[in-house]
Amino acid sequence: MTVLDATVGPLLIGVILAAVMYGVSCSQMFYYYTRYPRDPWYIKLLVTAVWTTDSIHQALISHSVYWYLITEYGNPVALTLLTKSLVIEVFFNGFTAFFVQSFFAARVYRLSGKKVWLVAPVALLVAGEFAVTMAYSIKALYLKTFVDLVQIKGLSISINAFAAVGDVTIAVILCTILHRSRTGFSKSNTLINRLMVFAVNTGLLTSVCASLSLITILSLPNTFVYICFFFLVGRLYSNSLMATLNARKSLREASTNELSVSLRDMQPSASTNLANLSTYSRRAEGIAIRIDTTKDTKHDGEESAQYASSDKHPVEEV
Predict the structure, then answer these.
(1) In this structure, which of 190, 194, 240, 300 has its CB flanked by the most CB atoms within 10 Å?
(2) 114 alpha-carbon distance from chain centroid
(3) Mind listing the pLDDT tens digit for each residue in 24-58?
(4) 116-131 burial, b if ≥16 CB within 10 A, otherwise e?
(5) Lowest model confidence (mean pLDDT) among 6-20, 67-81, 195-209, 288-302
């Protein structure tokens, strides 16, 4: 393996993969704005902010690779220098992670019944990662070469550690809350299982990518492999946010269809005697009560026409 294979090579691969994922996030954003035009303004503002930081980050890392491979082509000394765009991109990657993790932390707060003690660890991890990222970026601005990055290697390790632990913690808490929300009805339990799998998947990719960045910076300190994974973390955050928002209608429609089938199956036949009819009525009342409990959940998405203005569908909270 040559020096270029271990340094500029991972940078180029990281930019290409990040560009592909940026295209996916752009298509998801277009899908979001066309399908959820009635979402609250703060959700739309969050989506716009994440897309903006993502776009600036993509432009910066593209410029950095262009500078190394085109502008300074044939100048081996330039490969040892830190271009400012490669440092500034860390700021915007940090903002993307902060916006998305804060969104999931807010969901943990609402789903837990506003239990501060439960969301406090998540908030501390998110705030800690953002603070370390800003500290790393500010210090890196005063460095000239890649060799100088050794001075702030501890901060780089801390960024990836905070990111991995924070994402895993969010996924575990969400799954725990959902698991304890089981009602005993097979249809609703099936929906909860889907939501649990979805919660795990949205946090799994970001935590794995952050872990790989952490592992490679420790095992391959003289290469830029860890930078390749760091480039991708921001794209995974933006795509996980958009996937979560865009999945609401499909999950809600699936749950509504399953519930309709369940209620239709519970209807008594014409030959049912009075005692059995009473039993079915009590069961139907139990189901109705279970549905009504969703009225107290917070709504962060589009209101469905099939619910009253004060009714919120449980899918929209996960």
Answers:
(1) 240
(2) 21
(3) 999 999 999 999 999 999 999 999 999 999 999 99
(4) eebbebbbebbbbbbe
(5) 288-302
**Other Cβ atoms closer than 10 A to 251:** 18
Residues 6+ apart with CB under 8 A from 178: 111, 192, 195, 196, 199, 318
Distance between CA 72 and CA 75 in Å, rounded? Answer: 5
Place of tokens 């370390």: 132
Q: Which of 22, 88, 59, 38 is nearest to 305 (CA)?
A: 38
CB atoms within 10 A of CB 209: 24
Vertex 229 angle, CA 226 and 232, to 5° = 150
Q: What is the SS3 assignment for 145?
A: strand
What is residue 183's three-state secondary structure? coil
Query: Torsion over CA of 223, 148, 84 and 65, rounded to 10 degrees?
Result: -20
State CA 217 to chain mean position distance. Answer: 23
Among 58-67, 201-210, 307-316, the range scoring the smallest mean pLDDT is 307-316
pLDDT at 188: 65
Sign of CA dihedral 241, 25, 7, 208: positive
pTM passes above 0.85: no
Please measure the distance between the N-terminal and C-terminal CA atoms of the chain and give it in whole angstroms: 46
Q: How many CB atoms lie within 10 A of CB 163?
A: 28
Place of tokens 């569908």: 313
Strand partners, 81: 145
CA distance 73 to 3: 15
